[in-house]
Amino acid sequence: MADRAKLWSVSALAREFGLTAQALRFYEARGLLHPRRQDGARVYDYRDHARLRLIQKFRRLGFSLEQIGEYLAQYRAGRPNAAQFRLGLARIEARLAELRQMRRELDETITELEAMHEDAQARLRCACHNAA
Fold it and tell me: 100: alpha, beta or left, given left = phi > 0 and alpha = psi -120 to 50?
């Protein structure tokens, strides 16, 4: 967990997460990060650090920035209630269903390509034998 007293500059936080400064500013413009100003420069605290970790995790899982923003808003508003947890759970279940469907489609495509590959190899072997 990030040190609660630590502050990160735009460049330091971007470097730590492998992002650009523009990406951090984009997340800020979308209301996902809330840096404060210190001596005229943006600085990010441990909350921003934790939010950015969640943003990246949710992005990898395929959630939209809008969905991520809604999730983060639940925690900015205070302790989430049961309805908010149910909403989050429903979104996770929907994403799982999408990913499972994608996996089924990928498995079908792989099976078809493997069959095509075997057929092409057999035809090549046959063509080579006929040419000899």
Answer: alpha
